[in-house]
Structure formats: structure tokens, C-alpha cells
Write a structure and sequence with these properties.
- The strands form 3 sheets. Strands 5-4-7-6 form a 4-stranded antiparallel β-sheet, with helices on both faces. The chain has a 3-stranded antiparallel β-sheet with strand order 2-1-9. The chain has a two-stranded antiparallel ribbon with strand order 3-8.
- The two termini are 30 Å apart.
- The protein is built from 10 helices and 9 strands.
- Strand 1 and strand 2 form a beta hairpin.
- By secondary structure, the chain is of the alpha+beta class.
- It folds into 2 domains: 137 residues, Porin chaperone SurA, peptide-binding domain (Triger factor/SurA peptide-binding fold, Orthogonal Bundle), CATH 1.10.4030.10; 107 residues, Roll (Chitinase A, domain 3).
Length: 342
């Protein structure tokens, strides 16, 4: 259970959940993904990984943070992809340090949380648990069986939230005039060339195939074409793609969504743009495969109007400001602090 009592990456957690939110990475599923993961599980011992002006951050804190950055590790017994672990650890440590720096700055400014807000937050936090037993388990594991420690965690979280609200969110407002100006100055951003929404079934041809291998793949492709021509819907074609296609798109029902001609092999593009919605192509020899294409939709070239994009564009520009302000705040606080990484 991830017990979140505030925004912007400041959370309280239960069990092995993390203390801050970050971008989630989602690897491919299936047994083949097992080989990506380390053979050992990270086992926190309470060792110090960093000190911020003397305050200790432990490997327990770090592992919680890493679990939020990469929650898929929970399905692999706390193991992380070996090629990604260093980056996950770095991101987790940066967030831990940032939160502690923000908390210490809030204390330096003598910021306070009123009793009424504390009571409301504490009550809301407890209500997130499904039972009294679950709450007691969290209290024992994370707070040393102490309500005082729990209230201190909540107070810390709220102070971090309040300071970030002042120094980041309130300064990250984007006016409609700014959104309009960005739209006018970046017309290419809002142009979409002609595209087609397609599904594919592909049968891979081995590198330097023998005559027999070439015949075998061609025969399987012809059999696939007979089945594909019998399909009458997106779902039927997609289920067939999942069953017999040999490219990476099979896990998406063969669906490439909208693709422009420059993003397809020329042989495929020529056919795809000539089909009618719902039509299935004949066999297409493209690069190292035999390919079958189903056209779902044509999309003509167009410019998105300001009214169509203003909401998402405002969100994007505001998000960019938030990130810039966070980075700036982090740098400012770090310059004034003694940060030791062990």
C-alpha cells in the first residue's frame, strides 16, 4: 500500500513502498524478462548512504525510494534490472536528498503546521488503511510502534509540501497569453503529416536463409495471409497477430497506431496508404520479413488548432516550469548544505 498524504513526491509509505514518486519504468512482461534482473535481492541493513548537514539517510530509505521509481521490482522479489540499477539508485538518492534539504529549509524558516491541520492529516492518513490491523502493522514497521513518530513523519511531509507550494507551484503558473505565444511561435509542433493507423502480421526471414528456409517462411506467410483475409474486425486481426506474428508489435495486437510514411519501409508505406479502412493487404516483402497490413484509419495532414491543444499545452508548459524551479531550488539548497554520500 502506498500511503500518500501530499503531492509532488512527498509521501508516507507502508511496507516496502517508496517515499517519493518518480517516473515509472515498465519493462516487457513475460518469463524472458527474468534474465534482465540481478540474481541477488537488495537487503537493507540500516546503513547510512548519505548525510545532509549531519542528518542520516539510510539504505532502508533508499530502497523504498527505488521501489517507487521501479515498482515492477516487487514482482521480482526486490530485484532490479542490472543494467538500470545504478540509474534507479541515483535517482532515488537525489530525491531523498532533495526532500531532506527542503525539510531542513522549512525548519530554518520556522514554518509551522497548525494543530487543526495535523489532526485532519493524521485522521486522513489512518483512514487509508483497510483495517486496524493493517495500520498497526505499518505503525510497528515504519514508526517503531509510536504514534509520536507517525505524527512527526506526517508533519515532516506537510512541511515539505508547504515549502514546495511556495517556492515551486505558486511560481509555476502559466498564463493563457504565454500558452498562445508558444503556440504562435512553434507552428511546426502542431502540424501532423498524413498518416495511417495500421496493424501488421510479420513472419521473419532468417539472415542469409537457405533455399528451404526461404520456402518454409513463404509457406507460413501464405497460410497467415489466408487467415488474415478471413478476419473482419480490428479484434480478430489483432488476436491473429498475437498468435502468429513474429515481430515486437504482436503484444499490441499488431497495432502500430498512426504512422507516417517516413517511419515505414517504402514497400509497406506504398501499400498501406493505398488501402481502404478495414482492408487487408496481400503479402509484402519488406526488409527481413513477409508482412501483412490491415488499415484501420486514414488521417489527412493537418494543423491542430489552438483550441484543440491549449489544455494539454498549458499542462506541458506548467510542468516544464515546475521541473525547472525544482532543479533550481535543489541547486540552491545543496550549495548551502553539507552533503556527504557514502
Amino acid at each position: 500500500m502506498n500511503m500518500r498524504i501530499s503531492f509532488f513526491g512527498v509521501v508516507l509509505v507502508a511496507g516496502a513502498s517508496a517515499l517519493a514518486a518518480a517516473q515509472t519504468v515498465s519493462p516487457a512482461s513475460g518469463t524472458g524478462s527474468q534474465s534482465l534482473f540481478k540474481s541477488t535481492t537488495l537487503m537493507p541493513t540500516g546503513n547510512v548512504v548519505a548525510r545532509i548537514n549531519g542528518t542520516k539517510l539510510t539504505d532502508r530509505d533508499l530502497l523504498r525510494e527505488m521501489m517507487t521509481i521501479f515498482p515492477y521490482a516487487r514482482q521480482h522479489g526486490g530485484k532490479f534490472p542490472e543494467a538500470m540499477e545504478a540509474d534507479i539508485r541515483r535517482g532515488a538518492l537525489d530525491m531523498l536528498e532533495f526532500e531532506e534539504l527542503v525539510y531542513q529549509e522549512a525548519l530554518r524558516r520556522k514554518m509551522k503546521i497548525s494543530s487543526a491541520r495535523m489532526e485532519t492529516a493524521t485522521k486522513a492518513f489512518r483512514e487509508q488503511f483497510r483495517s486496524a490491523e493493517e495500520f498497526q502493522a505499518y505503525l510497528k514497521t515504519e514508526c517503531g510502534d509510536s504514534i509520536v513518530n507517525l505524527r512527526e513523519k506526517i508533519r515532516r511531509s506537510m512541511l515539505i509540501e508547504d515549502l514546495l507550494q511556495r517556492e515551486v507551484n505558486q511560481k509555476a503558473n502559466v498564463s493563457e497569453a504565454e500558452v498562445q505565444e508558444f503556440y504562435k511561435k512553434n507552428p511546426a509542433r502542431f502540424y501532423s503529416p498524413q498518416a495511417v493507423s495500421i496493424q501488421t502480421i510479420s513472419l521473419v526471414i532468417p539472415d542469409q536463409p537457405t533455399t528451404q528456409q526461404d520456402k518454409d517462411v513463404r509457406k507460413r506467410a501464405e497460410d497467415a495471409l489466408l487467415q488474415a483475409k478471413k478476419t473482419t474486425s480490428y479484434e480478430e486481426f489483432g488476436m491473429l497477430a498475437e498468435k502468429i506474428s513474429e515481430d515486437d508489435w504482436r503484444v499490441m495486437m499488431g497495432d502500430h497506431q498512426f504512422v507516417i510514411s517516413d517511419r515505414m519501409p517504402p514497400e509497406v508505406a506504398k501499400v498501406a496508404f493505398s488501402l481502404q479502412p478495414g482492408q487487408v493487404s496481400d503479402l509484402i516483402r519488406a526488409e527481413n520479413s513477409w508482412c501483412i497490413v490491415r488499415l484501420n484509419t486514414h488521417q489527412e495532414a493537418h494543423w491542430a488548432s489552438y483550441e484543440q491543444v491549449k489544455t494539454s499545452l498549458h499542462k506541458e508548459l506548467q510542468g516544464n516550469k515546475v521541473e525547472a524551479l525544482r532543479r533550481s531550488l535543489h541547486q540552491q539548497l545543496r550549495k548551502k548544505a553539507k552533503v556527504e554520500e557514502l
